[in-house]
Design goal:
Bound molecules: ligand 6CS
Number of helices: 11
Number of domains: 1
CATH superfamily: Bacterial extracellular solute-binding protein, family 7
CATH architecture: 3-Layer(aba) Sandwich
Strand content: 15-25%
Largest sheet: 8 strands, mixed
CATH class: Alpha Beta
InterPro entries: DctP_fam (IPR018389), TRAP_DctP (IPR004682), TRAP_DctP_sf (IPR038404)
Shape: globular
Helix content: 25-40%
Family: Belongs to the bacterial solute-binding protein 7 family.
Structural class: alpha/beta
Protein name: DctP family TRAP transporter solute-binding subunit
Pfam families: DctP (PF03480)
Organism: Halalkalibacter kiskunsagensis
């Protein structure tokens, strides 16, 4: 695996903090039972009394320091630590420390980690309905409106979340990491530019289908291999929000970037449901309250990063990237090809429940437009 700027970074676990908590905890839910069983998520100091449970949890992300998911998890961990007067400690892992994106999903499902940020693109083979986020031109262009829908949608919070829970993944929140843009070794302005284009995608059948609809030749790849693959011409291009393109230095090995805003990069903060359900009510309430607080914070965070790092790409004279912005007419040509993929999702990818979810989501989106 290769990360251009930082190399392979494994995060050393911070020493387990010893804490005492006024609330009573449950032994099976990552608490300190005083037995010093560090490998089952407990801390090793031994709480003085049952009413002084301590908690030591792990939170894994698909990104590295300075990127949205990691900074979200770090801030979430700090907030929880503060609110609990230091009695809940969360160790945050950068991507790579615990394996691939798919490994991380399994760790969450098995309770090896308590929390994870997951991109639905990596669970497409398991929760087909989660691929709804791969449908290009579905959500409004206005990022604030999109985030409002992600915060309040019954289709997502009731229907889709239930489908994830059936697979032992409990989504706590959905958030955008920004509008996605294309980078390429050639200019990407019209669908014809995608003809035979080797497009790197996440491992989701529907994302692949979306690029096949443009005539491209999609190939699934972890982002850890993407810089090198772009550099060596193994793939010709990729999609991501601007902050990620810049921070992972993809622009340095791509001559062109297209501001297409063809989709949002949506991520979910998730928790292992058995762990979560086994927590005392007040601890669960603390988590819920903090998840809610994080929603405006992560929106602000991604907006700032995406804006600043666009300037950084434009002003990079050492590795110049030609940046173009599609006109509405140019976007329309892609939208027309993307619409039948929505029918494919409805008719071939999901069952009745998934169809109902999409219909409801479309109604919710229409109500916001
Ligand atoms: O392209 C990817 O696969 C990565 N992109 C983002 C914005 N976050 C993590 C993800 O794995």
């Amino acid at each position: 695996m290769f990360f251009k700027k930082r190399g392979w970074k494994a995060i050393a676990l911070a020493g387990a903090l010893t804490m005492s908590l006024a609330a009573c905890g449950s032994e099976e839910a990552g608490t300190d039972d005083g037995a010093g069983a560090a490998d089952d998520g407990t801390s090793d100091d031994g709480a003085a009394t049952e009413s002084q449970e301590t908690y030591n949890w792990q939170f894994v992300t698909e990104e590295v320091q300075g990127q949205v998911q990691y900074e979200y998890a770090a801030e979430f961990a700090d907030l929880i630590n503060e609110k609990s007067d230091g009695q809940i400690n969360i160790d945050v892992f950068e991507f790579g420390a615990l394996g691939s994106e798919v490994d991380q999903v399994e760790q969450l499902q098995n309770g090896i980690v308590e929390f994870a940020i997951i991109s639905p693109g990596f669970t497409g083979g398991m929760v087909a309905e989660g691929q709804v986020f791969a449908l290009q031109f579905l959500f409004p262009d206005d990022q604030e409106v999109t985030q409002e829908i992600l915060n309040t949608s019954e289709a997502l919070h009731t229907h889709l979340s239930g489908m994830y829970e059936a697979h032992n993944i409990k989504p706590l929140a959905y958030f955008t990491e920004g509008a996605m843009q294309w980078t390429g070794s050639n200019e990407l302005r019209t669908p014809a530019d995608f003809e035979g284009f080797k497009m790197r995608v996440q491992e989701s059948p529907l994302i692949m289908r979306s690029y096949e609809a443009y005539g491209a030749d999609p190939s699934p790849l972890s982002w850890s291999e993407l810089y090198t693959s772009l550099d060596r011409g193994v793939v010709d291009g990729q999609e991501n929000p601007i902050f990620f393109i810049e921070d992972a230095s993809f622009h340095e090995v791509q001559d062109h970037m297209t501001i297409s805003n063809h989709n949002n990069y949506v991520a979910m903060s998730t928790v292992n449901p058995d762990f979560y359900n086994g927590l005392p009510d007040d601890i669960r309430a603390l988590i819920d309250e903090t998840v809610e607080e994080m929603q405006p914070r992560v929106f602000e965070m991604q907006a700032e990063m995406n804006e600043e790092l666009l300037d950084s790409i434009i002003n990079n004279t050492d590795n110049p990237t030609e940046v173009i912005e599609l006109t509405e007419e140019e976007r329309e040509a892609f939208r027309e090809l993307a619409l039948p993929v929505r029918d494919f999702f409805r008719d071939e990818v999901v069952g009745d429940e998934g169809r109902e979810m999409l219909e409801l989501l479309e109604e919710e989106i229409a109500a916001h437009e």
